[in-house]
Amino acid sequence: MATIAPTAALDRPHSVRLRARLQDWLPRIVLAPSFLLILVFVYGFDLWTFFLSFTNSRAFTSTKLIGLANYQKLWTWTFETDPPSNWYTALVNMGLFGGLYVAFCLILGLGLAILLDQKIRGEGILRPIYLYPLALSFIVTGTAWKLFLDPRIGLEKAVHDWGWTSFHFDWVVNPSMMIYCVAIAGVWQTSGFVMAMFLAGLRGVDSEILKAAQIDGASTFQTYRRIIIPIIRPVFFSALIILAHMAIKSYDLVLSVTGKNPGGAAELPSTFMYSYTFTRNQMAVGSTSAVIMLATIAAIMVPYLYSELKEKAR
Amino acid sequence: MSAGDLITSGPSREPARHSLTTRIVIYGLLVVFALVYIVPLVVMVNTSLKPLDEVTGGNMFALPQHLTLQPWIRAWGEARIGVSETAGIAGYFANSIKMVVPAVLISTVLGALNGYVLTKWRFPGHALVFGLMLFACFIPFQSVIIPMAVILGMLGHIGNELKDATGWSFGFGNSTVNLVIVHVVYGLGFTTLFFRNYYEAFPTELVKAAMMDGASFFQIFRRVLLPNSTPIIIVTVIYQFTNIWNDFLFGSTFAAGDNAPMTVALNNLVNTSTGITEYNVNMAAAIIAAGPTLFVYIVGGRYFVRGLMAGAVKG
Amino acid sequence: MATLEIKALRKRFGALEILKGIDITLEKGGFLVLVGPSGCGKSTLLNTIAGLESISSGEIRIGGRVVNDLHPSKRDIAMVFQSYALYPNMSVGENIAFGMEMRGVAKPERDKAVAAVAKTLQIEHLLQRRPGQLSGGQRQRVAMGRALVRQPSVFLFDEPLSNLDAKLRVDMRIEIKRLHQTTGTTIVYVTHDQIEAMTLATKIAVLKDGEVQQVGTPSEIYNMPDNLFVADFMGSPAMNLLEGRVARANGEATIVLERSDHPAIVAPIPASANAETLVDGAKVIFGIRPEAVNDMESIDRNAKTVVKFEAKVEIVEPAGSDTFVVTRAAGKELTARMRADADLKVGQNHTFAFNLDKAVLFDPATTQRI
């Protein structure tokens, strides 16, 4: 609120009032560009893509509406299992990759956090080691793992050299197993982050509760199982939501681990969208898959964000 | 205490009573996993220092018999990237820098101002505005990429027209400018989130006191909030730098060919289907690509963690 | 055989000695309060009794057994924490039963024990609720219930009332005292609030910097403090401590308290002090509590020795039930507690009186009571 000297207001009422009004509105004016940018570039574009999913756009955008035809196409493709349509493969892989990625990140993250929570020495060295993969681009991660798992020069060869000659690990070049390699690389990259979340959660548990548990005679295992882990349930949810949304958005990682994606065996909705839009010139189908991706993420994130914001407001 | 602080401040309770065997198991597991995390990086470095015949003929764990920096030199200046004429990743590295620096600066400044407005100058509807900006952090980029391509295409046309008319395109259609725009817009959600959470905890009394002293909107920001914002600025800059430098999707879609950022060039290099795969050069290139963010991580690791936690646990 | 015996207990943390040789005993059914300023080691001492922290040397016996190396759950103790430490993911009933569950007590017996305790504390209607749904006072009772159900030899309370607001604190204090009287349990209680200490304890141990300053009944601690620290720490408002000197003349010893604008106050040696040891000219600290400083109307009728003196009123603080009047003696402020309707004006000269029965003397050099 601007303070105005009364005499000034009498002398030049109009411009002073205008200036005062401007001051009041200044915060909103400052916020406006960012907000508008987001409105347009995020929500506006989402709507645009949504619109496109109802058109027959191919290599370029078209405004000719064809109703739900694209959605129907994808719907049919969902059930085309033999031979599997690209969309079917994408969905299956999403389930496999997403499920494994989330599950293993959670398990590994929780496990490492619990181990680190045992008052061990050297945490200052270990924790950064678990976390550093996060600093890497997914492309770098994929490149590293592609080499590591390469049967000719990577793991299989190394194990052969050490004597176990019947060891077989060609997943990364085997179309049907590629997606698991993507999962391995993904878990390697992100589990440190989940560990950090769980570690913060574990350390946030009131130490007096742990003392009470000691007096009650609970062993370390019982304390974790009956008390600590139930208390950090919110952290599970946070981690789950974030991992799920990262899994759906995964694109760089798939590309770099699988290379040229032979036969589309490691297809995911994200790569599906890209190839149909830019390579196969079926923009409308691509848009439709993008809308489906967006809807899935919204279905996960919106309830979660809403409850988080409400918590903060309380 | 924020979650990030909880992690970095370390344990504060009495030592647990664990038997010797338990402790051995715990340490053993931790070390095994540490190896799992570190080995791929070690292999990368190792491979990047070997001549190609050692890589293809030998064991990835074996140390180089003929240590060589040739792969690094090739990666930097000589390797052919896809179908590009430019040799080596040096140019692409520069592209990344040209794009990252402005994008980080602009998105951070805007995020700070937004956070300031949202917490200290509340207006009706601020919760909704924040909510909308927050959700924007999580959208899949696939849902905006087509319209963005169209818009950037239009900007390119405008640029060409301007160039024909005045001799300069004023930045329209320039790939670097395009990427900066894209990264600023899609980074705004996160930077606003970080600053908003930080300023939320900042005592409003200081702002009110400054107001009573007659300070204006911007003066309060500059003289009261900004000087006390160093921690969150560091967190935001690190987070944005890492995300933007590591981005691939936008880079590959909107900045093709010679103007591509580092990540795109790396991917093209590694996935060339022509000729022999020079694994050692690829690894060197990957390490160069990862260099800046790893360096930032080593130097500012504590803030890195805080940034992650701020995004995830939200205060 | 005392229920709790602590002998020569020392605790070191690195180079820092936190507890410097503690000796305390507590008989069965006693209520021991460990009181002292922040950092004096009282919580640490409680934690060592509980077994949550280790000791460097010394011995702790509970019920005659040496418990130094025993796990907390094996020491036959129960603890009520400052934050109550209720398990948030379990119901009240499960919270109370958890310890029994860990010890392998069968479900029917657990339920019976929980029901009995709930009845005593009147929390039966809360058994299915979660701690998050309870008020502060209710949570306190659940925490006590969890401790009660163990039927331990010793109950440990770690500043349980600090988190409550003033009114609730008084109510819960009475509850704890009632609990002690009806169940006759042995209690060790830590607080920094000396009023809690005085009202609850049968025995008080005043601690400072890891050392026991004095152990005694509330009355002993209050009326016969062993040293200056105890004298000053206990009692609110604090005891008046005035510098004076001994004057011996004609075989008679008196205390002289100089004043700047009035003649010195001359008082006989208080009954509590050993007059023989006092040397002429020796410096002493004269201690007297505000309630023993009045005027002739309010002074205790049964006082054997009274010293009158004129002084100027500096500050008058009406406190409802009393009026505190501040004047000056021996260069320091002297607080007197007068009747509520004492009508004194600032600047007015008034005749005050010391009830010398209640006065104590300290040696300034050793801080000990004479």
Can you walk me through this structure?
The complex is a heterotrimer of chains A (314), B (315) and C (370). With 314 residues, chain A is an all-alpha fold. Chain A has helices at 6-11, 13-52, 69-78, 86-116, 123-131, 138-148, 155-161, 178-203, 207-216, 220-231, 233-249, 252-258, 269-279, 283-313. In chain A, helix 5 (123-131) packs across helix 8 and helix 8 (178-203) crosses helix 12. Chain B has 315 residues and is mainly alpha-helical. Chain B has a single domain, classed as MetI-like fold (Orthogonal Bundle), CATH 1.10.3720.10. The model of chain B is unreliable at 1-5 and 8-15 (pLDDT under 50). The longest helix of chain C is centred in the middle third of the chain and has 18 residues, at 166-183. Chain C folds into 2 domains: 4-233, Rossmann fold, CATH 3.40.50; 240-362, Nucleic acid-binding proteins (OB fold (Dihydrolipoamide Acetyltransferase, E2P), Beta Barrel). The radius of gyration of chain C is 25 Å and the shape is elongated. Chain A binds chain C through residues 206, 208-209, 211-219, 222, 226-227, 230-231, 233, and chain C through 50-52, 71-74, 77-79, 81-90, 98-99, 102-103, 146.
Summarize this structure as a short list of keywords or feature phrases.
heterotrimer; A: 314 residues; mainly alpha; MetI-like fold; 14 helices; B: 315 residues; disordered N terminus
Quick overview of this protein structure:
The complex is a heterotrimer of chains A (314), B (315) and C (370). With 315 residues, chain B is mainly α.
